[in-house]
């Protein structure tokens, strides 16, 4: 089996890896590190939780250590673009951890916080700059940063950049970069738009590393879908937490308001919960994540903006309170569990008006997500005791909500009050967080633009949004 000591990394990096207890590289690390160290461009297709950050951070740090020279003023030798504040912060922390014995400088910039500390950190130049696209463009416009000194450009989570509407900003940023540079491009999926972008950014004949087929899900995750009426979701979620095995749970909703409502509902039944989404200040988001990591709260309720920015070990379960409008987001949501070689469970609630979304997810992931079956799913615990034993089929109450076929429609029983065939509960999924506000649900996946996470001047916050270790 390959070990990090076999890859030719600089001794200070190997010492840092030993400090972290890392011995064997993951498949993407073993395949990517030698090529990146040799200066090749890289196209990496890998799911979250496969060790992508170390796959590019370690060889980049090795190359910086081999060629010691100061970074240009107001510039960086390495630029890493990340879609969200949380992911940008974690990438910067990884560079700091791996490079602790090298004395290199790292800074991270994102939106929703003041500009002053960021400008001061950039003034003298940094070895590694991790940034969100929106805030980086703001700095470029203010001329507080220039990119002529960038030697290596990393685009992480490219497909999420697409979902959030960042493709145009990325193309703008690339125009500021020198033409002669190394490019590292990472994505969990490869839709047509991302494939086109790779052709624009990467040099010819890049090293290609694919560790899992596009849009597949982690095999160690026990996945189940629970068919449940829309108005019963909150009660069922509360019942899930009656099971002690639900120790550290991430709950996903579509909207910011929905995340706050679900968190309040859990608090009302005695489950410690916190919410995290784009309307929260940076300080609020960091406090919620810290409390979740420390075990002070059992449930972290999040929107898709946080789906790839949460890298926390020992997440026991992921609950999809609402299915995502973008089917690829399902993969990234459940990727929050079963990390670092651990097992995990993912439970998806599916109401009648979400069946088309479930079909889209199964089509993209090329698998059928098993329905809950009490005979085989005892690991879900007492929480599912109220659900009928369907033998893996949708609940009768859900099936009966469908209209009767032509020629077989029964007349309503006048002695009982009942709704029209095909009647659905009032209300429904609201507009996704990326668009803000609420409106009736889309019938299919939404692939349009999104909120600028980490960009713009709005939001405010309690921290500077910059971190460096000169």
List keywords for this structure.
single chain; 470 residues; alpha/beta; Rossmann fold; 2 domains; 7-stranded parallel beta sheet; 6-stranded parallel beta sheet
Task: Please provide a written account of the structure.
The protein is of the alpha/beta class and 470 residues long. The chain folds into two domains: 207 residues, P-loop containing nucleotide triphosphate hydrolases (Rossmann fold, 3-Layer(aba) Sandwich), CATH 3.40.50; 179 residues, P-loop containing nucleotide triphosphate hydrolases (Rossmann fold). It is 32% helix and 14% strand. The protein contains 15 helices and 13 strands. The strands form two sheets. It has a seven-stranded parallel beta sheet with strand order 3-4-2-5-6-1-7, with helices on both faces. A six-stranded parallel beta sheet has the order 8-13-12-9-11-10, sandwiched between helices. Helix 2 runs parallel beside helix 3, helix 3 packs across helix 4 and helix 6 crosses helix 8. It starts with 10 loop residues before the first helix and ends in a 71-residue tail after the last helix. 47% of the residues are buried. About 16% of the residues have low confidence.
Terminal residue distance? 36 Å
Contiguous low-pLDDT stretches (5 residues minimum) are 388-464
Shape, per Cα inertia axes: globular
Helix content: 25-40%
Total beta strands:
13
How many helix segments? Answer: 15
Strand order of the largest sheet: 3-4-2-5-6-1-7
Largest sheet: 7 strands, parallel
CATH class of the largest domain: Alpha Beta
CATH topology of the largest domain: Rossmann fold
């Amino acid at each position: 089996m390959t070990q990090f000591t076999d890859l030719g990394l600089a001794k200070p990096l190997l010492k840092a890896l030993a400090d972290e207890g890392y011995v064997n590289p993951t498949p993407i690390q073993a395949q990517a590190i030698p090529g990146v160290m040799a200066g090749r461009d890289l196209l990496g297709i890998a799911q979250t939780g496969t060790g992508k950050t170390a796959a590019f951070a370690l060889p980049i740090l090795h190359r910086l250590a081999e060629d010691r020279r100061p970074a240009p003023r107001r510039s960086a030798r390495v630029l890493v673009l990340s879609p969200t504040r949380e992911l940008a912060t974690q990438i910067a922390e990884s560079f700091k951890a791996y490079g602790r014995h090298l004395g290199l400088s790292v800074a991270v910039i994102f939106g929703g916080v003041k500009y002053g500390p960021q400008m001061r950190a950039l003034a003298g130049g940094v070895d590694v700059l991790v940034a969100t696209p929106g805030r980086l463009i703001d700095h470029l416009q203010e001329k507080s940063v220039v990119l002529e000194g960038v030697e290596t450009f990393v685009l992480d989570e490219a497909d999420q950049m697409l979902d959030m509407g960042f493709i145009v900003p990325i193309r703008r940023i690339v125009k500021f970069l020198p033409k002669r540079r190394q490019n590292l491009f990472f994505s969990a999926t490869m839709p047509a738009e991302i494939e086109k972008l790779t052709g624009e950014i990467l040099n010819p004949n890049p090293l290609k590393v694919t560790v899992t087929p596009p849009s597949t899900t982690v095999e160690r995750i026990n996945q189940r879908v629970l068919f449940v009426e829309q108005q019963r979701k909150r009660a069922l979620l509360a019942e899930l937490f009656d099971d002690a095995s639900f120790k550290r749970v991430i709950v996903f909703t579509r909207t910011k308001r929905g995340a706050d409502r679900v968190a309040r509902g859990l608090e009302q039944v005695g489950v410690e919960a916190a919410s995290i989404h784009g309307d929260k200040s940076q300080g609020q988001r960091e406090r919620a994540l810290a409390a979740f990591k420390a075990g002070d709260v059992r449930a972290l309720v999040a929107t898709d903006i946080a789906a790839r920015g949460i890298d926390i070990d020992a997440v026991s379960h992921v609950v999809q309170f609402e299915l995502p409008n973008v089917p690829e987001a399902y993969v990234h949501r459940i990727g929050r569990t079963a990390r670092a070689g651990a097992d995990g469970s993912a439970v998806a609630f599916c109401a009648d008006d979400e069946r088309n979304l479930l079909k889209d997810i199964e089509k993209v992931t090329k698998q059928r997500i098993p329905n809950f079956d009490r005979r085989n799913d005892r690991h879900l615990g007492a929480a599912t005791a109220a659900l009928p034993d369907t033998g893996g089929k949708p609940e009768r109450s859900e099936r009966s909500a469908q209209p009767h076929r032509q020629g077989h429609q029964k007349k309503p029983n006048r002695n009982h009050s009942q709704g029209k065939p095909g009647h659905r509960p009032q209300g429904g999924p609201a507009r996704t967080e990326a668009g803000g506000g609420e409106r009736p649900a889309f019938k299919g996946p939404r692939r349009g633009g999104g909120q600028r996470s980490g960009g713009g001047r709005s939001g405010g916050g309690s921290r500077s949004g910059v971190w460096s270790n000169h």
